[in-house]
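Entry 14. Structure prediction run on the chain below.
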Amino acid sequence: MRTTEQKQKRRIQDRKYREGLTPAQREERNKKAREYNLLHPGRTTEQSRRWVAKNKARYNKYQKNHRRTTRLKAYEILGGCCVHCGETDPVLLDIDHIYGNGNLRKNRNSDQEVVSGRINREQLQLLCVRCHRLKTRTNGDHLRSNSTHSEQPESHDAGQMTLF
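Output returned:
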């Protein structure tokens, strides 16, 4: 069994090794990892579950930090302030779906999609909590169901009032 000091030393060595890889070497390493995962389905998933169960506090701390940094990056990409009143406090900012179609994306992470570029950023804007509530209530977005809502309206006006 390795001591904590030995484990730390090994992690540092591994990190230095990975940082020194060329893109071709990195791709080859990733290819081998994918092949391993295909040959041993479920094994890495089970290993991950065991690690998370064993290191719950560490995992939660990592996830919280990752969500926070992702959200801040998304806010920066979207301008960093409320488009209506100029509020800049990240605690008070929300990502708003301009066309009111946020209810179609309930199980998605808008922050991550903004940072990765998987979502059209032209359909999003930053609003503070107050302005977001006002826009949602005025447009009636909170009353819409998934079945009556299209992914993107044909025109910007498409039957709704756009405040901002």
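Residues 146-161 have pLDDT under 50 and may be disordered.
Filed with the rest of this week's runs.
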